[in-house]
C-alpha cells in the first residue's frame, strides 16, 4: 500500500499490480472535453434533392427566381379589372363579357379590358389588364356573359409574383437540416441538387479475444459482439456513416496497427479494453500513439470510458459492457458526432412525473433508463449488463452528481431515444 | 340555378358548368375511411442486423442461447468459495491461495477448492467450485497469497447463466421497431439477420401540364414540381419507399394508363387535379377505374382531397397546392402509410402554451403550423400557397371543427414534424 494513493479503489488496484483509474473526471467536464476535441467537418458533397432528406445544407441557397414567377389566380373564377366590380352587389350584379378561358398552365393571349373577363383556374397566370380575381362562387355565367355579385379589391384573390419566395431571398441556410418542407422549398425554386456536408465516417472497433461476431457459434467463455452493432446504430441515427472494422486481437501491436488504419476516418470508437484489468491495452496504445485526455468518468453506467487523440482524430474508448457502451453512445458519442456533422443537439425531451422513487449515488452522474407509461416515467433500469433493459426503455433521465434520490411524482426530463 | 343544390359553393359551380365538390366530409371521417382502406402488409424480407435499424420486425425472435452462456464474473477480483470468506473482516483477513489467472476470454482449467481462489476479470467464466467473486478492492495480494478483507454471499458479483437473456425467451416481437438497443439484443443472441416487413412502395404521380421537374428552366405560367419531392420525403420518414413516376399529361387516357401502372405498388399518391376546375380529371378516372370514397374534406389546408380504390389499391388524390399537399401528407398519408408498414402512430407531441391567439372557421378542422420559440407555440401560418411557411415550422396544431379560436396562453398539443 503506498501513501500517495488516497482513493480506496486505487489503493486496491495498486495492491494487485493493476493500474488504477486516475481520479474520476466529472461527467460534465468529460463531455465538455469530448465535444471540444472534435470540430464541424469541412467535407461537402452534392446530393440530388431526392436524396437530401435529413442531410445538412452546406450552402446558403438563394432563389434564382420569383415564386410564383408571375402574378396568378389564387382561386378558380374570373380575372377582372377590379374597378368594374365596384357597383356589384347581391341583388345588382355587374355583367362582364368572357373573352378567354385559361387552365393552370395556359398563357393568356388576350388583354382584359374594362367590361371584360377571363376564366381562370387556381394557378393560372393573371392576364394583362386584370388586377383581381372574382371567385366563381360570387358569379353566374350565361352564354358569353358573366354576372358578378360581389366587388373585389385590386389584388384580391391574386398571388403576386414573388409573394411566396422573392428572387434572391434565402431559402435554405448553411447548417439547416433538410426537412420535407425544405426539400420542397428547394424544388420550388428549381433546384435539383444541393451541397450538403458529408456524413462523418466513424470507425468502429472492438477488442476482447472473447468477442465473436453474430452468426457464428460461441462456446462458454465467449460472447457475441453487441457493441459494434449498437454503436453503428447510434452513429446512423446521428448523421454518421459507420465503418465496421471488427475485432482487434488483445495485443498492443495489433491495436496499434488497427488505430493507424482507423484514424483515416473522422472519428474512432473502440469498445472493450478500457477497464482496469491487466489486459487493458486501449489506454496504453492511446498514450503511446498520442494523448490520453481522460480515463474514467464519474457516471453510471459508463465509468470506464477513455478519450484520446491520435493523429489529430478523437478516439473514444467505450466500456465493454453493452449497456454502459450504449448509454455512452447516447450521452457522449452522439453529441460529439452531431457536432462533427453540423447537426443541432438532440432535443427530444419530455417532462413527465416519475412513477417510482429512484435512488442514486452521490458523486457521480447517473443515467437511468425509463419507459413512458401513461404519461409517467417508469424506471426500466435492470442492471448494467442487461442490454434488454435498454431494449425496453423509451429514454433516460439524468440524475446529477449531487442528488441522492428523485422522489416519486417529481417531474423529470426524459431524453427520448 | 337548380333547386337541388343547397350549398352556395355548389350552386356557384353548377352555374358555371363546373362540378361541385360533393358535400364536404368531416376530417375525422375521411381519416377513418383512409386508414381503414389500407392494411398492414404481408410482404417480408431478410435484413442483416447492420441494415435493420428502424425496420419493423416480422418475426418473434426467441433466444437460442442463455446470455451469458455460463456463470461469469461481474467484477474484477477473485473467484472464491463464498463459505471461506465468512470470517473475513476489515482487520482480520482470510488468506487464500491463488491457483490460476483468467482473462475475460479464458476458460478455467482448475477447480477452486476451499482455501483457494482464481484471479478473474469482469466477464471471465466462473471456475468450477467457485460460487462468488470478491472485488479486487476488498483484497490484498502478496506473492501467491490473497488476503480477503470482506465476506461475500453465494452468487455475489456473479452474472448467472441466462441472467440477461434466458434461452427461449422472447427478445424481439413481431411489429417491434428495431431501435439500437433491439439491434443490440439481436446481436447478443448471435442473430446476424432478421425477418422484417418490406417497406411499402408508394407510387407518386403529379398532374398538371404546367408542372416542370426541378433542374429545368420554366417560363411564366409554369411551376416546379414541389409535391413529388415533399410526398417522397414524408414517405421516407414514415417507413415507405417512394417510386417517382413523374408528371402525367392532363388527359383521361394518360392518367388511366399511369394509374394502371402505378397500382403495381402498395399505395398511389397523385397530386394536383383534385380541385373543382373543369380540367379535374383525377376524380373522373378514379370513378371510371374503381370506387371514389370521398372528394373534398372539411379541413384547411387540404380541402380538395380525394380518395379512391383502384384494383384493390388505395389512390390518394392530393391538392396541387404545395402546402395543402404537404399538410395532407402529415395528417392523412402518414397514418395510412404507417398502418401499411406496421409502424405505430406518429407520437411526437409536445404540449405548450400558444404565443398568440389563433382564429379558425367553424365547421372544418384547421391545421396551423407553428414554431416552438422559448417553450411557446408561435403560429407560422402564412398562406396556403407558401411552402416557406411549412419550411420554417416545427410542427402543427389541430383546431377542431367546432372551435372558432384558441386564446393566447392556452395549452396546445403540437405534433412535431
Could you give the topology of this structure?
Two copies of one chain form a homodimer.
Chain A: H1 8-15, E1 25-26, H2 27-37, E2 44-48, E3 61-62, E4 72-73, E5 77-80, E6 94-101, E7 116-120, E8 132-135, E9 139-142, E10 145-148, E11 158-159, E12 170-172, H3 180-188, E13 193-197, E14 201-207, E15 211-212, E16 223-224, H4 227-237, E17 241-248, H5 252-262, E18 267-271, H6 282-289, E19 291-295, E20 297-300, E21 306-310, E22 313-318, H7 322-340, E23 349-353, E24 358-359, E25 365-373, E26 376-379, H8 387-391, E27 395-399, E28 405-406, E29 411-416
Helix pairs in contact in A: 2-7, 4-7
Overall description:
Chain A has 417 residues and is of the alpha/beta class. Chain A folds into four domains: 18-41 and 199-340, Molybdenum Cofactor Biosythetic Enzyme, Chain A (3-Layer(aba) Sandwich), CATH 3.40.980.10; 44-64 and 169-197, Alpha-Beta Complex (Molybdopterin biosynthesis moea protein, domain 2); 72-159, Molybdopterin biosynthesis moeA protein, domain 3, CATH 2.170.190.11; 349-416, Beta-clip (Beta Barrel), CATH 2.40.340. Helix content of chain A is 20%, strand content 30%. In chain A, the strands form eight sheets. In chain A, strands 1, 20, 23, 25, 26, 27 and 29 form a seven-stranded mixed sheet that branches. In chain A, helix 2 (27-37) packs across helix 7 and helix 4 packs parallel to helix 7 (322-340). At the A-B interface, helix 1, strand 9, helix 3, strand 16 and helix 4 of A face helix 1, strand 9, helix 3, strand 16 and helix 4 of B.
Amino acid at each position: 500500500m503506498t501513501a500517495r494513493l488516497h482513493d480506496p479503489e486505487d489503493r486496491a488496484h495498486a495492491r494487485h499490480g493493476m493500474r488504477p483509474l486516475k481520479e474520476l473526471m466529472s461527467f460534465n467536464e468529460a463531455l465538455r472535453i469530448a465535444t471540444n476535441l472534435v470540430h464541424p467537418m469541412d467535407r461537402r458533397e452534392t446530393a440530388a434533392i431526392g436524396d437530401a432528406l435529413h442531410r445538412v445544407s452546406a450552402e446558403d441557397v438563394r432563389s434564382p427566381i420569383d415564386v410564383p414567377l408571375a402574378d396568378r389566380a389564387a382561386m378558380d373564377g374570373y380575372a377582372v379589372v377590379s374597378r368594374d366590380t365596384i357597383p356589384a352587389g347581391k341583388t345588382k350584379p355587374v355583367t362582364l363579357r368572357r373573352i378567354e378561358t385559361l387552365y393552370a398552365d395556359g398563357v393568356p393571349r388576350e388583354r382584359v379590358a374594362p367590361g371584360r373577363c377571363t376564366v381562370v383556374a387556381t394557378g393560372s397566370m393573371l392576364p394583362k389588364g386584370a388586377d383581381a380575381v372574382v371567385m366563381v362562387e360570387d358569379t353566374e355565367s350565361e352564354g358569353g356573359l358573366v354576372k358578378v355579385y360581389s366587388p373585389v379589391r385590386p389584388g384580391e384573390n391574386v398571388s403576386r409574383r414573388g409573394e411566396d419566395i422573392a428572387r434572391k431571398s434565402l431559402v435554405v441556410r448553411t447548417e439547416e437540416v433538410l426537412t420535407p418542407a425544405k426539400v420542397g422549398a428547394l424544388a420550388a425554386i428549381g433546384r435539383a441538387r444541393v451541397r450538403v456536408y458529408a456524413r462523418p465516417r466513424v470507425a468502429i472497433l472492438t477488442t476482447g479475444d472473447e468477442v465473436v461476431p453474430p452468426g457464428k457459434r460461441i462456446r462458454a467463455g465467449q460472447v457475441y459482439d453487441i457493441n459494434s452493432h449498437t454503436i453503428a446504430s447510434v452513429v446512423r441515427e446521428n448523421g454518421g456513416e459507420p465503418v465496421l472494422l471488427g475485432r482487434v486481437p488483445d495485443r498492443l501491436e495489433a491495436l496499434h496497427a488497427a488505430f493507424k488504419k482507423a484514424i483515416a476516418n473522422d472519428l474512432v470508437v473502440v469498445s472493450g479494453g478500457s477497464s482496469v484489468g491487466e489486459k487493458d491495452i486501449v489506454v496504453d496504445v492511446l498514450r503511446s500513439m498520442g494523448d490520453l485526455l481522460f480515463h474514467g468518468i464519474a457516471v453510471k453506467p459508463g465509468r470506464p470510458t477513455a478519450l484520446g487523440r491520435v493523429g489529430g482524430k478523437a478516439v473514444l474508448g467505450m466500456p465493454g459492457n453493452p449497456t454502459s457502451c450504449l448509454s455512452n453512445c447516447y450521452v457522449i458519442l452522439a453529441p460529439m458526432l452531431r457536432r462533427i456533422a453540423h447537426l443541432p443537439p438532440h432535443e427530444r425531451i419530455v417532462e413527465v412525473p416519475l412513477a417510482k422513487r429512484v435512488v442514486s449515488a452521490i458523486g457521480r452522474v447517473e443515467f437511468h433508463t425509463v419507459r413512458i407509461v401513461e404519461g409517467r416515467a417508469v424506471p426500466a433500469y435492470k442492471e448494467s449488463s442487461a442490454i434488454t433493459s435498454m431494449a425496453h426503455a423509451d429514454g433516460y433521465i439524468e440524475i446529477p452528481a449531487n442528488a441522492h434520490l428523485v422522489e416519486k411524482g417529481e417531474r423529470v426530463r426524459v431524453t427520448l431515444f
